[in-house]
Design goal:
By secondary structure, this protein is of the alpha/beta class. It is built from 29 helices and 30 strands. Strand 29, helix 27 and strand 30 form a beta-alpha-beta unit.
Length: about 775
């Protein structure tokens, strides 16, 4: 038990003789996180993905991505293609060396264009003399046979008409003209029978002629096909040699192109009928049934990429098959397959915020499925499409090999780890960013560098040394430890940006300490309203003299975005009872679980204090005055213990000292949170109502390193007006709050014994 000296209260930090040259933007204490990430990148084995526990910020994300990019293997990632060979509904996957996907696609287009042009030329030009000679022979033979058939028909009294299916025979009248249908109908039956008989005979002869024509044409076509085969071998040699040279190391591409050329030529030969008009549709169908879609083009990436997916929907993660409405019918093809970020980051890394992932229905399930199988299934919505009776594609699964980094919080990690066995096997590496770091030369140098970078990159004014010190103090205050800092780049950026605006408004050439203080410690209106309520005596508090059963405790009000300290009057009355502690807050349903626990601990402590062999013959009625919200936490348990001892012993408590601290059943004082806000809250009330002279707070000794107080409080402590006392146990608290010496604790216990005797005597007298 002692009062803290000024140098123990005053925050002091120096930024001299620091070396910023070798420091990264991230602070040294973060290196363990980067080691874990690097470990994941180096382990070429499934399941070694990373769950990173951290609050999200753009700067941290940028640092992570820069680190990953710096540590990626210098191996260019492959391009990923979907190709159509035989079955257009079942595209196959081909991985191509970096940057060659588009080259592959271009070769397919060029080959198709050459085949179309050269095929047209073969049909329609006369440069090939052998082909022309064969065509001439076929045509001459055809003409001779047709002339023969015409002669036979004329000799039998018929004209002949050519149709697509063969010959039609028309009877001739005596004048040499063709007989009409009416004339035929007017003939005698015998004449009709004679004509029918002759036609039947002519049809037999015609069929024989047609067979001969067909045989001659087939012979000619087969001979032309041999020429066509040689023709393709000649005209396609250059481009075949070209792609064989280009893709000599790409077996799958070579196989595809070789097969494509072979099948095109074979099919074109089968389709050949000497007439381009008849064959044109088939030619186009044969040539253009082959297709390539480069769904991942890595030509601009010389090493695997790191991608941050800010909207991890199914389509954004896995990819999608799009559909087009043509005349009311939904159709698709291989070119409408789109890759998602998982494929785009293949061989590299993808970063996802876990809350965004879980916010997208089924995204987490399919991500797990993808990682477990090591394959991306773009056709994940097949069931839905079948329900709509859409004739869709069924593309081949694509093998992947990449690392996933999920950024999330502890709670989500614990839930997933506890209830999802797959998660354990997929995310075997856990890393954690701890923004609270120890103050040392390296962290100070890193802070300096980050401040300078923010000012430079955002065109802010330069900052003076006292401003840098105040920033460090602000960060230590957020860490609630004078020996540590809450290192957050976004927070730094916010403070510097606001301070720069303040400096501009005052036409200053720099950012100084005052600018930092003005933007870092803004008071909210609610705090001012509470201070006014104290001033107007709407909230009661005693700051002078001594009182029995009354003490000034310290609390923190937290709005979620702002917190501040508020002293609270705690009172206690004793009366005949069974040793119970009547917690007014609990009975009013205004007590939280932790506070209820603290009351039970107090009951154990008080009973132990008097020996524990008999019931205390009194009940304690304990109340937080003018508190209308829920009370939770145990930071007021020291104050509650003291006020109970005062009420029972009838010894007064000093009103000029406020107290905070947690007590255990052994009477030891434990550390609490919000120590700076609590001290400053009492200080402000004292300043508002009276003055700070001879005012003090009593805090746990274990909280002494948590002190990062405002400059005004530090100054008043240094001037000897305001005091900060520490305690290690309830005895220390009693000696400070209820007396002036080390014997006070014994005096209190003696007084309690006398009072208990009075209660027992009255009880026995009854």
């Amino acid at each position: 038990m002692r009062g803290l000296k000024s140098d123990e209260v005053k925050y002091c930090i120096e930024f001299t003789n620091l070396d910023e040259r070798e420091e990264n933007d991230y602070i040294p204490e973060y290196k363990q996180v980067y080691k874990e990430i690097k470990k994941a990148l180096e382990i070429d084995k499934e399941g070694y993905n990373v769950y990173l526990i951290d609050d999200f910020s753009k700067k941290k994300l940028e640092n992570i991505m820069n680190f990953i990019n710096d540590n990626m293997k210098d191996v260019p990632p492959k391009d990923i293609c979907y190709v159509v060979n035989v079955d257009s509904k079942n595209p196959k996957t081909i991985f191509v060396s970096n940057g060659k996907g588009k080259v592959f696609d271009k070769y397919v287009e060029d080959i198709q264009g050459i085949y179309l042009q050269k095929t047209y030329d073969f049909y329609n030009t006369s440069e090939n003399k052998e082909k022309e000679k064969l065509l001439e022979i076929v045509q001459k033979s055809r003409s001779e046979l047709v002339s023969k058939m015409v002669k036979i028909a004329e000799d039998n009294g018929f004209n002949i008409k050519f149709t697509t299916s063969g010959f039609t025979f028309i009877p001739i009248r005596g004048d040499g003209n063709a007989m009409s249908e009416n004339e035929y109908d007017s003939l005698e039956n015998q004449e009709k029978d004679d004509i029918i008989t002759k036609v039947a005979t002519l049809k037999v002869e015609a069929q024989d002629i047609l067979d001969q024509i067909k045989d001659r044409e087939e012979e000619g076509i087969e001979s032309i096909k041999e020429l066509m085969k040689k023709y393709y071998a000649d005209v396609m040699k250059e481009i075949k040699d070209s792609y064989k040279k280009e893709f000599c190391q790409e077996e799958l591409v070579m196989n595809f192109l070789d097969n494509m050329c072979s099948e095109i030529e074979k099919s074109l030969l089968d389709n050949y009928s000497m007439s381009y008009e008849d064959d044109e549709e088939g030619v186009h169908e044969i040539i253009y049934k082959y297709d390539v879609n480069v769904i991942v083009d890595n030509r601009n990436n010389k090493k695997p990429v790191c991608i941050y997916e800010d909207d991890p929907s199914l389509s954004n993660l896995l990819g999608n098959i799009e559909y087009e409405n043509k005349n009311g019918v939904y159709i698709t093809d291989v070119n409408l397959i789109k890759a998602g970020s998982i494929l785009q980051a293949n061989e590299g890394c993808i970063i996802i915020r876990v809350n965004n992932l879980l916010a997208n229905p089924s995204a987490y399930y399919y991500l797990k499925k993808t990682l477990i199988n090591g394959k991306v299934d773009i056709d994940y919505n097949r069931g839905y499409l079948e329900l709509l009776s859409l004739n869709g594609l069924h593309p081949e699964h694509i093998d992947i090999n990449e690392k996933i980094i999920l950024i999330g919080d502890y709670e989500t990690y614990n839930l997933l780890y506890s209830y999802d066995d797959d998660f354990k096997n997929i995310f075997k590496i856990k890393a954690e960013f701890n923004p609270v770091v120890k103050i040392n030369e390296k962290t100070k140098a890193s802070l300096m560098k980050n401040i300078n970078n923010i000012c430079k990159n955002n065109n802010l004014k330069s900052i003076k040394e006292d401003g840098i010190k105040e920033i460090a103090k602000f960060l230590s205050r957020k860490a609630e430890n004078r020996n540590k800092m809450y290192f957050n780049i976004d927070e730094l950026d916010r403070i510097l940006t606001l301070a720069n605006s303040k400096s501009k408004s005052e036409s200053k050439d720099f950012i100084d300490k005052k600018d930092i203080i003005s933007v870092a410690y803004n008071e909210e209106e609610i705090e001012n309203e509470i201070l006014e309520a104290f001033e107007e005596n709407k909230i009661f508090i005693n700051l002078k003299g001594k009182s029995v059963g009354e003490i000034n405790g310290l609390t923190v009000l937290d709005t979620g975005y702002y917190c501040f300290g508020k002293p609270v009057r705690i009172t206690c009355n004793c009366y005949n009872g069974e040793g119970n502690i009547i917690d007014v807050q609990k009975d009013s349903q205004l007590s939280g679980q932790i506070h209820i626990k603290a009351i039970n601990i107090l009951k154990g402590y008080i009973n132990n204090l008097i020996g524990g062999y008999s019931k205390i013959p009194v009940d304690f009625n304990l109340s937080f005055e003018q508190v209308y919200g829920k009370i939770d936490g145990d930071s007021a348990s020291v104050a509650e213990a003291i006020v109970m001892l005062s009420s029972l012993s009838r010894i007064e408590i000093k009103n000029n000292i406020a107290v905070t601290g947690s007590i255990n059943q052994l009477g030891e004082v434990q550390p609490i949170g919000g120590i700076n806000e609590k001290i400053e809250g009492f200080f402000k009330v004292c300043k508002k109502l009276d003055n700070t002279k001879d005012k003090a707070v009593l805090i746990p000794y274990s909280n002494r390193d948590n002190l990062v107080l405002s400059e005004e409080v530090e100054r008043e402590v240094e001037n000897g007006n305001f005091h900060i006392y520490t305690m290690e146990n309830i005895k220390d608290a009693v000696n400070i709050l209820m007396g002036n010496g080390s014997d006070t604790y014994k005096d209190v216990l003696d007084a309690i014994g006398k009072e208990l005797k009075k209660y027992n005597d009255k009880k026995n007298a009854k």
